[in-house]
Automatic annotation (TrEMBL):
Binding site for NADP(+): L11, G12, A13, G14, S15, M16
Listed name of the protein: Pyrroline-5-carboxylate reductase
Organism the protein comes from: Microbacterium laevaniformans
Domain Pyrroline-5-carboxylate reductase dimerisation residue range list: 169-273
Pathway(s): Amino-acid biosynthesis; L-proline biosynthesis; L-proline from L-glutamate 5-semialdehyde: step 1/1
Catalytic activity from the UniProt record: L-proline + NAD(+) = (S)-1-pyrroline-5-carboxylate + NADH + 2 H(+); L-proline + NADP(+) = (S)-1-pyrroline-5-carboxylate + NADPH + 2 H(+)
Length: 277
């Protein structure tokens, strides 16, 4: 059995930080977690989680520095625009050997390192929202001072929430256009299939049930069989049948080009964010 993870602080336990927190608590692998939030109400909502100390800046203006000073791994979960100010706030209290993990889109490892210094290892992460149910895909990119052991430790942390892919930082924004934004693409497809069912006369409840459970069931089948999705699609698509006719329409709409264009647009925006636009 692996040793418990060292002490962890999550500064800004909002949607993503909160999802990681839920995964850590569910796994039981973390012995001590301190989380901070801006409001007392948000902090109160996390009180009572096993092994978690929840602080609010509203009640204690030094909550971030107190949490960071005591932690071996510090996750930065605030909005990207707030990251530099937060790093300047906590940098003086970070102990040598602390690992800083970014959850912020578009903020480079170089930006982190320029503020926290060379005694602190920086690892950039890009998780997605299914972390809250333990089904995340998280990309990890290690900074130049992060050791293999430190990266392995952070990998363990994120594996409490799902799968992990290690990539060079040059690929982290591209990864975000697939797995980071990907849940939104999936939900959009569910919305559109639900609307198609409504258009064919089904009630709102039945349309939603059909669309949602069809996608959920198909994903479960893909997961359970380990088959290539193209092969599973072929098995559903009988020659000269109804599905074949529908697939022809979808392929005629050039979904490959649509997804390439959509992910390219997301990547362009990530580069704008990194440039401060």
């Amino acid at each position: 059995m692996a040793a418990p993870l060292p002490s962890i602080a999550i500064l800004g336990a909002g949607s993503m930080g909160g999802a990681i927190l839920q995964g850590l608590v569910r796994s039981g692998d973390a012995s001590a977690i301190t989380v901070t939030n801006r409001t007392a109400a948000r902090a109160e909502a996390l009180v009572g989680l096993d092994g978690v100390t929840s602080l609010s800046l509203e009640a204690d203006g030094d909550a971030n520095t107190a949490a960071a000073a005591a932690a071996d791994i510090v996750l930065i979960g605030v909005k990207p625009v707030m990251v530099p100010d937060l790093l300047r706030e906590i940098a003086p209290v970070l102990r040598p050997g602390t690992i800083i993990v970014s959850l912020a889109a578009g903020v480079t490892i170089a930006t982190f390192a320029s503020i926290v210094g060379e005694d602190v290892s920086v690892i950039r992460s890009m998780p997605n929202t299914p972390a809250v149910v333990g089904k995340a895909v998280t990309g990890l990119s290690a900074g130049p001072t992060a050791s293999a052991d430190e990266l392995a430790l952070v990998r363990r942390l994120f594996e409490t929430c799902g799968a992990v892919i290690e990539v060079p930082e040059s690929q982290i924004d591209a990864l975000s256009t697939i797995s980071g934004s990907g849940p939104a693409y999936f939900f959009l497809l569910v919305e559109e299939l639900t609307e198609a069912a409504r258009g064919k006369g089904f009630s709102d409840a039945d349309a939603r049930l059909m669309a949602e459970q069809t996608f959920i069931g198909a994903a479960a089948l893909l997961d359970a069989t380990g088959e290539d999705p193209a092969e599973l699609r072929r098995r559903v698509t009988s020659p000269k049948g109804t599905t074949e006719r529908a697939i022809a329409v979808l392929q005629g709409a050039r979904l490959d080009g649509v997804f390439a264009e959509a992910t390219d647009a997301a990547l362009a925006r990530a580069k704008e964010m990194a440039a401060g636009a």
